């Protein structure tokens, strides 16, 4: 085993023929695809299942529902089964009721006569059915749109504020020499070490005093100034030739104009990376909103999901659907910007 | 357009003095070139004038108004950077109009000024391009255009030709001279290349070690260098410098060093010779020939002859020095003159 | 210079081009609005003081939401009562710290006065150790495999990376759904002839899946850092080793590992810092259960300050200060290592 692993890790590049380590590599990667994609795919498939199908064990792979028929003389539609009769023939019968190990069945074509069959002789007749109502019901029943809107507002507003104030600070710290610059840098590094997790209660106090409790501002503002963002942007701005800034000064540009018209456009790649990070952070943020957003009206998606999984233990069908909706924007962003995100992270070593 | 006055300019970086007291006055419409070896402070002086560096002492006046503490953006000067410093995210048109927008000039006026400058610099076809899509020479012209549209009080050039290849440099040099003749602004130009200095300048300011060595017209400097530094710096190939005692009849004077330019060393009959030298290297340029020779004590001597020469390495050559063109310097390196044309500027 | 200009001036591709188009449009409008007041400010205070203006908003935010809270936190930790406002809280000295640290034996959480805190510490330590080993191992193997000349490397890299972007709540719910009593995994187990396992009722399984889900969600990030490190190793080093007839294991041991070591160290410390702070995924996945089997330090702090019937900010504050000291030290180490890697 260790030998195998060893060769797998060590095999060198080159060599045109298929070495067995290549096979092992692809095997590992295939397993990886199954393990990484599988769960998400399973979630997506499950989210289209009816509550009844979700309770099935073992579960079916695809969203299936039992077919039903309306039989004259019975007010409710009856579930349809395929029954192996004693003579070996197979008939499709509708089930009226089940009593112990026998089931009372009726032939939809001849509803007058009931047939008793052993319960283990029948298998349900099923067809693929997408329970779209898992997605549509929460919209009407649980104010799902409001959570979606809250999440969107938090993400967009917070990202704009972050980009603005972080880039301003980064500009000051990269272009100018001034008294207290070292101290300011130290302050930024200092905040890098203080995750909000450990100052939860005092930040709560500050937010309360500012009158933001149970408003979206309580989530937007505390995380807006990110040390990561300042660092990332400053690092990039340092590579902008100083001549450009001096040329702009000679061109009678004000310092604000140099920031807005020269430095910002030239920092676009770094700003884009920070924007993506910020969207990710904000869309997924959990602990702080959980602490500060107590009223349901201001819940963001992750908080709402967490609340649902507590309250609606049995309503997995809604929960799964809403999870998919929460996941979807991130998945889309990733699908389009994958290369950009991965290279951005590889270059900065941050997330 | 305006004149410029510098008084006692000093600039220190920590304990290092880069400018050690500069006094200079530049007249309206003049083309002045700062020249000197690298590290002499010429670029710093230009940046001080621009307002991109603060001074440690001294003051700066533009058109009679003191601007020593005025920010770069408020001095009304335009600068062409060595790197051109074109805004890479803007088109040529936007590059040229940026300053005008900053000044709050009306759109129509901006367009007409940019168009005029573009015509003058043959950039009309490239106005919508970004700098990355231009050749080196075109970028250089955009940088100049960006300065021209401003109609600034003074143009500052920081080694603007050093990023061009040799051929383009000569062509652009001519264009700059023509430009100055056409728009006639006050121009201050920094270079380490003395050919640029000689060809462009109304007056040259020679800087060395943070001080002005000499100020004068190109031919002034060439014909009457105030000291050994200027004598050696201006002119190519360099002026020959010899100890006085090597030259017949010169030992008696106050001079310690004699200077003679290569074109004033004349091959002659052995009887008339001041020196006999051994030819070490012959450079045939076709129209002229340079002989690199060694005199007594291996003193190097460069000789320029018209036309082509038959001499080869190892030949002995008697030469004489035209007395009219002999430069004499005292032990301190200052030119010995009955009445010095321009005193060495000691602060 | 020309190179820098070219790289900045090169036609931007992809998202930055689109972003640039949008931003220049809105930037022009914003400019007309913001420039006059900012110009006036510059005239008033002088260009040399403008950096302070640029720095101000960010520093106000840092001050309000980081520095001030750190101070309040320390005040909380030495005051008692249930009031939120520091002035209304009586001074109690080191009482909270004493309570947290009052233990019969530090190895035995039950012997401690604040046994929940120590359970949290113990769980966090267990989680951290397993998570570090698993995370580094899997991301290293994955990075090594991805560094081989394989087809579709971009695709596979993306596959491993995408869970990094998912919300911790989403991650936890995905796995909760798979691991539940009638979930997919138990279906597979029973089809294979096994018994159903109640993963969230057994403490050992609950901790295993907490670590597993964390690794699942974050290994893509560390893989990426290690892959970048591997790709930075010059190819000719390997070619030289090949010319010398070096055996594969030796190549890994004597070339890859030493050259990758700085990146590996950074990954180790980053995993450590994140593990110590772990909360989201585990909280949603197990709720800290069964019992307190997967309750982490951060959950303890959160519960003490917010979720419990009696909100004890003092105790939570003291625990935060202790956690903060640990994180501070770890971050210093990380900065030191990053700086060394950069130089």
UniProtKB/TrEMBL annotation, chain A:
Keywords: Cell inner membrane, Cell membrane, Membrane, Transmembrane, Transmembrane helix, Transport. One of its GO terms (biological process) is transmembrane transport. Residues 148-337 form the ABC transmembrane type-1 domain. This is sn-glycerol-3-phosphate transport system permease protein UgpE. It is a multi-pass membrane protein. Belongs to the binding-protein-dependent transport system permease family. The chain crosses the membrane at residues 20-45, 152-176, 183-204, 216-237, 258-281, 316-337. The complex is composed of two ATP-binding proteins (UgpC), two transmembrane proteins (UgpA and UgpE) and a solute-binding protein (UgpB). It is found in: Cell inner membrane; Cell membrane. GO terms for cellular component: plasma membrane. Part of the ABC transporter complex UgpBAEC involved in sn-glycerol-3-phosphate (G3P) import. Probably responsible for the translocation of the substrate across the membrane. CDD domains: TM_PBP2.
UniProtKB/TrEMBL annotation, chain B:
This is sn-glycerol-3-phosphate ABC transporter ATP-binding protein UgpC. The gene is ugpC. One of its GO terms (molecular function) is ABC-type maltose transporter activity. InterPro entries: AAA+_ATPase (IPR003593), ABC_transporter-like_ATP-bd (IPR003439), ABC_transporter-like_CS (IPR017871), ABC_transpr_MalK-like (IPR015855), ABC_transpr_MalK/UgpC-like (IPR047641), Mo/tungstate-bd_C_term_dom (IPR008995), NA-bd_OB-fold (IPR012340), P-loop_NTPase (IPR027417). Transmembrane segments: none annotated. Keywords: ATP-binding, Nucleotide-binding, Transport. Residues 4-234 form the ABC transporter domain. NCBIfam families: PRK11650.1. One of its GO terms (cellular component) is maltose transport complex. Coiled coil: none annotated. The lineage of its organism: Bacteria, Pseudomonadati, Pseudomonadota, Alphaproteobacteria, Rhodospirillales. Belongs to the ABC transporter superfamily.
UniProtKB/TrEMBL annotation, chain C:
It holds the Pfam family BPD_transp_1. Keywords: Cell membrane, Membrane, Transmembrane, Transmembrane helix, Transport. The keyword NADP does not apply. SUPFAM superfamilies: MetI-like (SSF161098). GO terms for cellular component: plasma membrane. It is found in: Cell membrane. Its main location: membrane. Belongs to the binding-protein-dependent transport system permease family. This is Sugar ABC transporter permease. It comes from Azospirillum lipoferum.
């Amino acid at each position: 085993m260790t030998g195998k692993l060893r060769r797998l890790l060590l095999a060198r590049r080159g060599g045109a023929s298929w070495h067995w380590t290549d096979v092992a590599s692809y095997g590992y990667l295939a397993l990886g695809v199954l393990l990484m994609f599988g769960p998400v795919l399973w979630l997506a498939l499950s989210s289209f299942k009816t509550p009844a199908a979700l309770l099935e064990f073992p579960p079916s792979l695809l969203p299936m529902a039992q077919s039903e028929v309306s039989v004259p003389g019975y007010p409710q539609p009856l579930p349809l089964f395929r029954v192996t009769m004693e003579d070996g023939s197979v008939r499709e019968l509708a089930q009226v009721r089940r009593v112990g190990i026998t089931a009372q069945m009726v032939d939809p074509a001849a509803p007058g006569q009931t047939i008793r069959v052993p319960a283990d002789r029948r298998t349900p007749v099923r067809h693929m059915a997408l329970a779209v109502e898992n997605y549509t019901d929460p919209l009407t029943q649980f104010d799902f749109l409001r959570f979606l809107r809250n999440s969107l507002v938090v993400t967009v507003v917070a990202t704009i504020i972050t980009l603005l104030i972080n880039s301003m600070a980064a500009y000051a710290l990269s272009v100018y020499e001034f008294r207290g610059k070292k101290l300011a840098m130290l302050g930024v590094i200092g905040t890098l070490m203080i995750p909000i997790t450990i100052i939860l209660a005092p930040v709560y106090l500050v937010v309360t005093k500012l009158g933001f409790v149970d408003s979206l501002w309580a989530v937007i503002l505390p995380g807006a100034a990110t040390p990561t963002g300042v660092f990332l942007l400053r690092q990039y701005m340092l590579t902008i030739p100083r001549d450009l800034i001096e040329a702009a000064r000679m061109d009678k540009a004000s310092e604000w104009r140099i920031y807005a018209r020269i430095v910002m456009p030239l920092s676009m790649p770094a700003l884009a990376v920070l924007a993506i990070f910020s969207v990710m952070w904000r869309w997924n943020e959990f602990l702080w909103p959980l602490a500060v957003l107590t009223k349901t009206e201001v819940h963001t998606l992750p908080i709402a999901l967490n609340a649902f999984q507590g309250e609606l233990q049995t309503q997995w069908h809604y929960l799964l659907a809403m999870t998919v909706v929460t996941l979807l924007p991130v998945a889309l962003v990733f699908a389009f910007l994958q290369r950009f995100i991965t290279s951005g992270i590889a270059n900065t070593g941050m997330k | 357009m305006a004149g410029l006055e510098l008084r006692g300019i000093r600039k220190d970086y920590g304990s290092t003095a880069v400018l050690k007291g500069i006094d200079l006055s530049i007249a309206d419409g003049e083309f002045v070139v700062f020249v000197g070896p690298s590290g002499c402070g010429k670029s710093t002086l230009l940046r001080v004038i621009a307002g991109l560096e603060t001074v440690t002492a001294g003051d700066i006046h533009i058109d009679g108004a003191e601007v020593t503490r005025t920010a770069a953006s408020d001095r009304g000067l335009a600068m062409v950077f060595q790197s051109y410093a074109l805004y890479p995210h803007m088109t040529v048109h936007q590059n040229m109009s940026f300053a005008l927008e900053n000044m709050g000039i009306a759109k129509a006026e901006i367009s007409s000024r940019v168009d005029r400058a573009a015509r003058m610099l043959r950039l009309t076809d490239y106005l919508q391009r970004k700098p990355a899509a231009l050749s080196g020479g075109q970028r250089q012209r955009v940088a100049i255009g960006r300065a021209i549209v401003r109609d600034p009080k003074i143009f500052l050039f920081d080694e603007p030709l050093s990023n061009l290849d040799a051929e383009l440099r000569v062509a652009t040099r001519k264009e700059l001279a023509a430009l100055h003749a056409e728009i006639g602004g006050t121009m201050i130009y920094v270079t380490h290349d003395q050919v640029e200095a000689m060809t462009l300048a109304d007056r040259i300011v020679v800087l060395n070690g943070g001080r002005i060595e000499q100020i004068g017209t190109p031919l002034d400097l060439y014909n009457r260098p105030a000291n050994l530094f200027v004598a050696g710096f201006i002119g190519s190939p360099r002026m020959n410098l010899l100890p006085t005692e090597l030259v017949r009849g010169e030992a008696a004077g106050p001079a310690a060093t004699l200077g003679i330019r290569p074109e004033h060393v004349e091959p002659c009959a052995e009887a008339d010779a001041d020196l006999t030298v051994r030819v070490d290297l012959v450079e045939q340029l076709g129209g002229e020939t340079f002989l690199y020779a060694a005199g007594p004590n291996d003193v190097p001597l460069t000789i320029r002859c018209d036309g082509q020469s038959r001499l080869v390495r190892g030949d002995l050559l008697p030469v004489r020095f035209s007395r009219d063109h002999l430069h004499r310097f005292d032990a301190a390196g200052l030119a010995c003159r009955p009445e010095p044309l321009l005193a060495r500027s000691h602060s | 210079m020309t190179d820098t200009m070219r790289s900045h001036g090169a036609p931007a591709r992809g998202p930055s081009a689109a972003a640039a188009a949008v931003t220049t449009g809105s930037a022009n409008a914003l400019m007309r609005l913001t420039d006059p007041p900012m110009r006036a400010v510059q005239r008033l205070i002088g260009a040399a003081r403008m950096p302070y203006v640029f720095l101000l908003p960010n520093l106000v935010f840092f001050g309000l939401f980081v520095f001030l809270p750190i101070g309040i936190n320390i005040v909380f930790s030495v005051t008692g009562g249930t009031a939120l406002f520091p002035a209304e809280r009586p001074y109690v000295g080191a009482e909270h710290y004493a309570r947290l640290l009052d233990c019969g034996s530090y190895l035995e959480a039950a012997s401690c006065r604040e046994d929940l805190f120590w359970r949290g510490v113990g769980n966090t330590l267990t989680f951290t150790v397993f998570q570090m080993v698993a995370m580094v191992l899997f991301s290293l193997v994955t990075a090594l495999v991805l560094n081989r000349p394989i087809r579709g490397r971009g695709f596979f890299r993306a596959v491993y990376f995408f869970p990094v972007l998912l919300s911790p709540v989403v991650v936890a719910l995905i796995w909760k759904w798979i691991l539940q009593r009638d979930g997919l995994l138990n279906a597979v187990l029973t089809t294979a002839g096994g018994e159903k396992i109640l993963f969230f009722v057994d403490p050992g399984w609950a901790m295993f899946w907490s670590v597993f889900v964390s690794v699942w969600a974050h290994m893509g990030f560390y893989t990426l850092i290690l892959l970048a490190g591997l790709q930075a190793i010059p190819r000719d080093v390997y070619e030289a080793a090949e010319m010398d007839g070096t055996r594969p294991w030796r190549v890994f041991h004597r070339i890859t590992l030493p050259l990758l070591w700085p990146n590996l160290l950074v990954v180790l410390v980053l995993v450590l810092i994140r593990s110590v702070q772990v909360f989201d995924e585990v909280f949603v996945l197990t709720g800290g259960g069964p019992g307190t089997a997967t309750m982490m330090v951060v959950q303890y702090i959160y519960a003490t300050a917010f979720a419990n019937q009696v909100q004890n900010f003092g105790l939570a504050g003291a625990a935060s200060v202790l956690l903060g000291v640990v994180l501070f030290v770890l971050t210093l180490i990380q900065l030191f290592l990053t700086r060394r890697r950069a130089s």
